[in-house]
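Supplementary notes for students who missed Thursday's class. We covered one full example, reproduced here. Read the sequence, then the structure, then the short commentary at the end.
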Amino acid sequence: MSKQTHTSGPWRADLTRGEQGYSDSYTVAGPLYEVCRMVDLDEEDAANARLIAAAPDLLEVARTALMVMEDLNDMIPTK
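Structure (token representation):
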């Protein structure tokens, strides 16, 4: 596998409700660093923040699926 180049997970998406004229925002952060912040949210933006927060987990699942498919491919007899 290639070297990890992203902020280590788990990531989380935290909603902050704006007060007195300030916008709501989602902050997506890992254990040590903020990954991104989204403001002036609608439902799609909130869903995108949650999807971004899931990125490290999705990457791990994709890598595992690739290894399983490679193992299965090795089991298929060739002519």
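Commentary. The longest helix spans residues 55-75. Helices lie at 43-53, 55-75. If anything here is unclear, bring it to office hours.
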